[in-house]
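cron nightly-structures :: item 1 of 1
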Amino acid sequence: MIQNYTKIQENIEKNNNYLKIIWSDGEESKFNFMWLRDNCPTAHDKDSRHRMFNILNVSERLNPKKYIVNSDGNLEIEWSEGDHTSYFDQKWLRENCYTLKNKQKYISPYKLWDSSLEKNLKSIHIDHDEIINSDDGLIKWLELLHYTGIAIVKNAPVEKNSALKVLNRISHTRETFFKTPFEVINIPKPNNSAYTAHALRNHMDLPWFENPPGYQFLHCLINSAKGGDSSAVDAFAVADYLRNNEKDTFDILVNTPLKFRDKDYTQEAVRSVYGTAISLTKDGDYNDIRYSIATLDALDCHPDIMDSVYKAHHRFGNLLHDAKFQINFRLEPGDIFSFNNRRLLHGRTEFDPNSGHRHLQGYYMDRDEIIGRLKYLKSY
């Protein structure tokens, strides 16, 4: 049964290229003719849900010959071409009305955080078996990952490759030349600084990829060495601070592409890409952070802006390591440190490999898998 506020009033008006509908709550919608034909319920295959109708099969002169609200309460449109009639559910039209959507104020879904999170780390903890045994647990994990950008799975098994079971509750992992899983352990002649005992500044992984992995999962198997404590910072929160307090710096970081580069002797490959330190969505929300001091290449900005670019980059980097934004914690065996690789920067302190062992296994997953799985589970 359609609620009163979604009902179409009888006076539908045909204009040059759209139907104007007045709803019973007084709201007004404009539905473009081509949009209506393109979104006819019969345009999509009922099983695959993919669009089968080809909008190129009608002309730009397409228009409704007749349009009424029929006895079933559907908007019925007989088209001028193709001998076709469409039937639109009113509730669907209201929910998908782009006129109203463009009037609404955008509200970000993200929960930004700073160093105060360190006092309440349990709020981002979730038990491994809760995820394995229930969809509610899986949803909780996915919501932490998507909205907060960080979660620590507790009490996972500590056998090698054992994290795959819980990760497969989401989807498949993303393969890279580091292999899956990749071993975060001190090794001779490393091809990445993560495979040393050195301290790591807060960074994202693989910024020199055209499409860096969306999420990363670091499974702690052993952590008995002295040092090697973890750090994390919500770079969206840092970007938001700059947007509200240092707009000139923010604008430079949003608008100036930086070059990232990696030369890997094990793959005999040089990978490089340009990307802005902060990228935004169509709604002006935060989409990606691309940051890594270690793999930032020699900049080639215009000489007139080079100094301001360096100052903005310097300021951003300092804030990304500022105690008011950063949290610090120590991973325990059985922890899976899970995070949005294109939002949260992570690092670690130096550790002494002679004092004990430190072994993590790492996995990547594309952001589409996290968001897609969450949307699917929440829709049923």
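cron nightly-structures :: done
Confidence is low (pLDDT under 50) at residues 187-192.
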